[in-house]
Specification:
The chain is of the alpha+beta class. The chain contains two helices and eight strands. 16% of the residues lie in helices and 21% in strands. The strands form three sheets. Strands 3-1-2-4 form a four-stranded mixed beta sheet.
Length: 129
Amino acid sequence: MGAIRQCSRSACRQSAVATLTYVYADSTAVLGPLATYAEPHCYDLCAQHADSLTVPRGWEVMRLAMPTTPQQPGPDDLLALANAVRDAAARPARAPEPQVQRGGQAAIDGPAAQDGARRGHLRVLREPS
């Protein structure tokens, strides 16, 4: 789940409730409910800036129906979140990161520290006894 998006207007720190998109070919500005994902060619606006929107002369504003209450997570959203958590828990733990010692040699403590074992682009070397 993403963070709460803020209004795109400079110096405004209100939460965004609507998304503004321009259709330059039709000289139209489309203002609708907050888009699912933030996109670079769209502007997220708070309620105040969405209500006071003005467009250049000769342009039209198309205002799509806005929901009266914020959208709550549905069962599909909750199921997707549960699956993501389950998948993350099922992944094996990462091996310890190699520690670079003097001379540029890498050392790993534990069972992975075998003679000549490779970890990515590094080779694990044992200290001479």
